[in-house]
């Protein structure tokens, strides 16, 4: 019932160390059910920097600064200038483009060390990470995508009413991550949200 070669993760077997990395990638998701077309499928790119500290086999920590460009679709009701210089109420679909910066802190649990014991020579590791963060909305631009026309005043009103530019939102994040050690100083990781 027990594996005689199994050795629980032991802090004395590991030398604590700092590390840093460059993060890049993105997400391809169905952004919204508002616009049912191939254009609703999009790729949201991200780029970031990470600094981490491997303290013990079961206790690693990471700080991350991540830039993301994100867009989605939404509906809005507005007053459009029609014939006869009269404003009529209508609705349209617009695309919201966000520039976001995430500041994240995370606890990282090495699942291999948890279930197989610490092994400094192991190349492939699986992790679970979780922690708090802050999301800063740097800018937001709204553009109409359904062919509606309106004057600039109405477009500005809709843009301002739906803008989150300048706002800060607290977040909680979690993910599974796979790392592969290419050399003693180079590691490639894949994050699964």
Describe this structure in words.
The chain is mostly beta strands. It has helices at residues 111-116, 152-161; strands at 17-30, 41-56, 59-82, 86-110, 124-144, 168-181, 187-192. Strand 6 (168-181) and strand 7 (187-192) form a beta hairpin. The two termini are 35 Å apart. Mean pLDDT is 76; it is low at 1-6 and 149-153.
Summarize it.
The chain has helices at residues 111-116, 152-161; strands at residues 17-30, 41-56, 59-82, 86-110, 124-144, 168-181, 187-192.
The chain-level structural class is mainly beta
Q: Summarize model confidence as the mean pLDDT.
A: 76
- How much of the polypeptide forms β-strand, as a percent range? over 45%
Spatial extent as radius of gyration: 24 Å
Q: What is the tally of helical segments?
A: 2
* Shape field: elongated
Unreliable residue stretches: 1-6, 149-153
- As a percent range, the share of helical residues equals under 10%
Largest sheet: 7 strands, antiparallel
Instruction: Walk across the major sheet and give the strand order.
Output: 1-2-3-4-5-6-7
Number of strands: 7
- SSE string: EEEEHEHEE
Q: Roughly how many Å apart are the termini?
A: 35 Å
